[in-house]
Design brief:
65% helix
């Protein structure tokens, strides 16, 4: 006969009656996640790509902007259409000289091939951004692919998702002054509205990185405008002013909201500049008080306030501070999914809703618990030393 201990042991080892049902429920949840957050985003992306190709609408921003500008540049002409061009009421190339030179080689390809290549580069940039920020939760990749701002970014194939990758790399390399300075300089040289990234460097006492950014930025732009021709600088500035005047009421900016309600241009501009100034001060304050992550989140938010025309795809940049703060899937990642608004000409309520959502995402990114991050070059000062990891 078995001993009492053996009987007791077998009783303990016996499976619990509720375990099979629990396992089945766990498997069902896992299968649902794979379907909804894995298969659906990939399938949607492929279907959308096929639809855009069939309708000849793939990469419209890139084709009618950088690609046409690159063809003109390679032919020995100006990449800019000029401030009086009717194209400034729609899609036109209005990037600085460095962007014109960097994007020109891709214009050697035919229109469709170049458009598809740049679209794939945009999608790859999103994946690389999350990977650089050490996001290992695969579900976030699926959710991010479904963000309307991300979809708008790769559908039109502009530079926003590539800027997001540059910001992610800057964060990852934040304690390597030459690298982070070069990345910030490159980003600002391609899209000027991300200049608040320099505030982040200044606020977090990364003086060497800021010096590298200023030096490399100056060198890159002097060389680029020298190659392109200094007379093109005036054409670029005047074209940008004309584009802003023509399209400042069509986006999601404070200017668009206030001007759409009949408020005069002067008070609307004052409100816009005031909001930008407050965000910049908050970015500096957080950085000075050891809030590296908070300062980055506010820096990215300040970029959205700094652009004269705020398009839907610009909100994809918020994925960077959110990935830093929440590398695992939480409900905040799902918030942008409901903001399926038009890329151009949103209503006032849509502008307000997306502004609230952006504020919530920024607040969540700032509220991330953990040790304060101090740059390596500031550790010799009065600020306490800390090792910062993503």
């Amino acid at each position: 006969m078995p001993s009492r201990k053996a009987v007791a042991g077998s009783a303990v080892a016996a499976p619990r009656p509720g375990r099979p049902a629990s396992n089945a429920w766990t498997l069902a949840i896992a299968a649902a996640q794979i379907l909804v957050l894995g298969a659906v985003p990939i399938l949607f992306t492929l279907i959308q790509l096929e639809s855009l190709v069939r309708g000849q609408l793939l990469a419209v921003d890139y084709v009618h902007g950088p690609w046409e500008a690159g063809r003109s540049l390679l032919a020995g002409h100006s990449p800019y259409v000029g401030p009086s061009s009717a194209q400034l009421d729609g899609i036109a190339f209005v990037y600085p000289a460095l962007a014109a030179l960097a994007l020109a080689p891709l214009s050697l390809l035919r229109e469709n091939a170049a458009g598809m290549a740049f679209t794939m580069l945009n999608i790859a940039a999103l994946v690389a951004t999350l990977h650089v920020l050490r996001v290992r939760d695969w579900r976030i990749y699926g959710v991010a692919l479904l963000w309307p701002a991300v979809i708008s970014g790769w559908e039109t194939a502009n530079l926003t998702l590539l800027l997001g990758l540059a910001i992610a790399l800057a964060w990852r390399c934040r304690d390597r002054p030459a690298v982070v300075g070069g990345l910030v300089a490159l980003a600002i040289s391609i899209k000027v509205f991300v200049w608040p990234l320099a505030l982040w460097l200044a606020a977090t006492r990364r003086s060497r990185a800021l010096a590298w950014a200023g030096t490399l930025g100056l060198a890159m732009n002097l060389l680029a405008w020298q190659i392109l021709g200094w007379h093109e600088l005036t054409v670029y500035v005047r074209s940008m002013e004309a584009l802003t005047h023509n399209q400042e009421t069509r986006g999601y900016s404070i200017m668009a909201l206030t001007l759409g309600h009949g408020i005069g241009h002067a008070p609307a501009e004052a409100l816009s500049v005031g909001s930008l100034a407050m965000a910049a001060v908050a970015c500096l304050w957080c950085g000075r008080h050891g809030g590296d992550r908070r300062s980055l989140a506010l820096g990215v938010a300040t970029c959205l306030l700094a652009t004269p025309i705020l398009w839907l795809h610009y909100f994809a940049l918020l994925a960077v501070p959110l990935a830093v703060a929440r590398p695992k899937l939480t409900p905040i990642w799902l918030l942008p999914l409901v903001l399926r608004f038009p890329a151009v000409g949103p209503s006032a309520s849509q502008i307000v809703l997306i502004a609230i959502a952006s504020g919530v995402i920024t607040a969540v990114a700032m509220a991330m618990p953990g040790p304060r991050c101090v740059p390596a070059e500031a550790q010799a000062t009065k600020m306490p030393a800390a090792n910062c990891e993503v």
